[in-house]
Amino acid sequence: MRRRPAEALLIDFDGVLRHFDPSAYGDFEDRHGIAPARLLESGLEWARQLPAITGHWTRQQWLDAIAAHTGAPAAALTEWDAYPGYVDQTVLSFVREVRAAGRKVGLATNATDDLHDDLAALGLKDDFDAIVSSAELGVHKPTKEFFKAACLALETPPDQCLFLDDTDRNIRGARVAGLSALRWDGPDVLAYARAALAL
């Protein structure tokens, strides 16, 4: 049986709405002796990522762990962390379009404890009906518990929520939890998302 149109949108943050431009770091590697990509790689290793995105570590503790693992100087971590990335304006326009059509939109992300600071710095704090952060929940995508909490935050049943994310594992987890889900791989996906939301 064909699903009815979704009534709400859950959208990922990094990789969908926010992106990072490697060129923004300039001569960072020459000045600090380590590449920004190496710091990110270290931070995303599960031993350091998991406690950071489930609220067991603060962001500063996560940064300290990256420094200890890579040998990077504190100044390098401070500079690396200061870059907030940039907002994909096409995706932001879509978020605002969905809300203008009367659908709820929730940000559903694996994040450190400073997510709200990031949203404020990027001018995004008023663009969502709910902000669902793994660091606040203590559980992360793609667990069923995360998606259950995200749907509850939007007061919308899972089978009426559309989830947009750039990671296959999270897409599969959302579908197991009963949501419709689309993998973000560029703006062409928005046509399918609009159709799913009957916009």
Automatic annotation (TrEMBL):
SUPFAM superfamilies: HAD-like (SSF56784)
Phylogenetic classification of the source organism: Bacteria, Bacillati, Actinomycetota, Actinomycetes, Micromonosporales
UniProt GO molecular function: hydrolase activity
Keyword Cell wall biogenesis/degradation: no
Keyword Hydrolase: yes
UniProt keyword terms in alphabetical order: Hydrolase
InterPro entries registered for this protein in UniProt: HAD-like_sf, HAD-SF_hydro_IA, HAD_sf
The name this protein goes by in its record: HAD-IA family hydrolase
